């Protein structure tokens, strides 16, 4: 086994230990020396595995103490960023999967036209996808795209990354989003497509996504199970 494969194997094994409770939250992992002996490898390889765990948000390195295990029961969801699920998925380091339940062109009603500021729109793409993480469906994304901005879309693209397709293939200049976060009662659709585990309410992040000319081209409702996410932001006080 190469050294690069070795550190990834150690990363996966320690991560599984954190997720299964072998290494409890707010406790210190075994030292680099102890881990070196456990995995019969060099401290350099252990250090690379720990660095990756820290980058993914599973541990915090504390000088003079070691590696503190962080609370991984809730995943950090960036409020201020405009991040695709695939990009979030890559940063989480968890087993995840996208399930497309509904896809196609629709004739929008007045409410949808208002959300997208498109009173004359004749057709929109509708995409309904569940995001399964660690075997549980915990996010339901309902996306609507103006057809005049996104002329072509496929189910295969929706199963992978729509933003990657829009930016790399269609060269759409996606710029910014206005976001609204509310807590709503679970709908029948939520109960059908998500593993709501008895919860009566759900966190809904509404996104109005704009191109660089400030026109809206996408409206999204991203519906999150209450117990699985913390919504994070960074704020700086103006002097």
From TrEMBL:
PROSITE patterns found in the cross-reference section: HTH_GNTR (PS50949)
Keyword set includes Transcription: yes
Keywords: DNA-binding, Transcription, Transcription regulation
SMART domains membership: HTH_GNTR, UTRA
Presence of the UniProt keyword NADP in the record: no
Residue span, HTH gntR-type domain: 4-72
InterPro entries: Bact_HTH_transcr_reg, Chorismate_lyase_/UTRA_dom_sf, TreR, Tscrpt_reg_HTH_GntR, UTRA, WH-like_DNA-bd_sf, WH_DNA-bd_sf
Tree of life domain: Bacteria
Protein name as catalogued: Trehalose operon repressor
Gene name tied to this protein: treR
């Amino acid at each position: 086994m190469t050294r690069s494969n070795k550190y990834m194997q150690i990363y996966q094994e320690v991560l599984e230990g954190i997720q299964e409770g072998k290494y409890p939250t707010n406790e210190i992992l075994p030292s680099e020396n102890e881990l070196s002996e456990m995995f019969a490898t060099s401290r350099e390889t252990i250090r690379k595995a720990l660095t990756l765990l820290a980058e993914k948000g599973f541990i915090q390195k504390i000088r003079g103490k070691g590696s503190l295990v962080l609370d991984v029961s809730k995943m950090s969801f960036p409020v201020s960023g405009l991040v695709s699920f695939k990009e979030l998925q890559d940063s989480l380091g968890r087993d995840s999967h996208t399930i497309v339940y509904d896809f196609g062109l629709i004739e929008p009603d007045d409410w949808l036209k208002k959300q997208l500021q498109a009173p004359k729109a004749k057709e929109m793409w509708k995409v309904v996808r569940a995001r399964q993480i660690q075997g549980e469906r915990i996010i339901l994304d309902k996306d609507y795209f103006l057809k005049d901005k996104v002329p072509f879309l496929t189910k295969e693209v929706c199963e992978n990354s729509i933003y990657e397709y829009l930016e790399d293939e269609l060269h759409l200049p996606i710029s910014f989003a206005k976001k609204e976060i509310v807590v709503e009662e679970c709908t029948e659709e939520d109960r059908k497509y998500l593993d709501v585990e008895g919860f009566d309410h759900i966190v809904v992040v509404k996104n109005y996504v704009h191109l660089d000319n400030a026109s809206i081209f996408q409206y999204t409702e991203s519906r999150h199970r209450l117990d699985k996410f913390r919504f994070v932001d960074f704020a700086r006080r103006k002097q």
